[in-house]
User: What shape does this take?
Amino acid sequence: MNKMVLGKTNLEISKTGYGALPIQRVNKEVAKKILRKAYEYGITFFDTARAYSDSEEKLGYALSDVRKEIVIATKTHAKNPEELLEHIDISLQNLRTEYIDIYQLHNMKFVPKPDSEDGLYNVMLKLKEAGTIRHIGLTTHSVEVAEQAIDSGLYDTIQFPLSLISSERDLALINRAKKANVGVIAMKALAGGLIDNAKAAFAFMRQFDNVVPIWGIQKDWELNEFLVYEATPPLMDKEIRGIIKKYQDELSKDFCRGCGYCMPCPVGIPINTAARMSLLLRRAVYQNFLTEEWQDNMKKINDCIHCNQCIEKCPYGLNTPELLKKNLLDYEEFLKNNS
Assistant: This one.
């Protein structure tokens, strides 16, 4: 397993990271089996979050006996110091550990700093001084916030969506972080499932020696695929570059990444899937989305009350109601032609 040092943390980790969000969807024993296999094949970096239901608990159940041989990053979505202290206690208990290697402020819209009104960073510092956490990180979907976090010198790591369809400004974060010796954790390296060529995605991310992608894995075949690429890393050759160019041409415009921060919808629209339905119909097994259940889900778009909560919550600044409307029209046409 290839290894890297994650910025100023000086933590040596596997260059293939494990994103533990998807293990929410499998039972405890299945999660343990796949997490153990990942560890046994050399993956040593595992990322989870307090917000990922029982992901932390499953990670602790599977790997607590090898705790000193792995690096765990988890997150708090706390809005105040009291909530943050509650979260860290729960995370420590769930993960069956006495410390967190990288504790990250989750999905931030601003950069917490010492002595600011929110009080979050000061609590993080106290936890670090006590040895409860070893490094302070921040995750965000905002490139402006990511840039500010890097430039502040306050954070050891940033976590940000990066993939082969990222904008030039987004990708510029990698070099910016390298100059500041800030470790980069790349989420959504498959763009929320819209990139269906893991080989091309792997080759693209492997170009950067200061970035660890956290691949969201819940199935054995998914893990096997990344283990194969890790053993024999695909090169950025002419074929791969051609594949990447095709993705960039098709997905370079505004589209829903499926992050889910817009949810829940007041009228029950499954926004984070419905708003990218056009892409899913053409890039996934479309029959899965033509069921009666999904037809009913898409019809809910007509019930939109234009509260604009989804617009306010979207980290990518999308006009979500308009995007939903376009996807519904395309869905109805696709359904008519394929039913």
Observations:
- The chain has a mean pLDDT of 94.
- Residues 100 and 243 are 38 Å apart (CA to CA).
- DSSP finds 14 helices and ten strands in the chain.
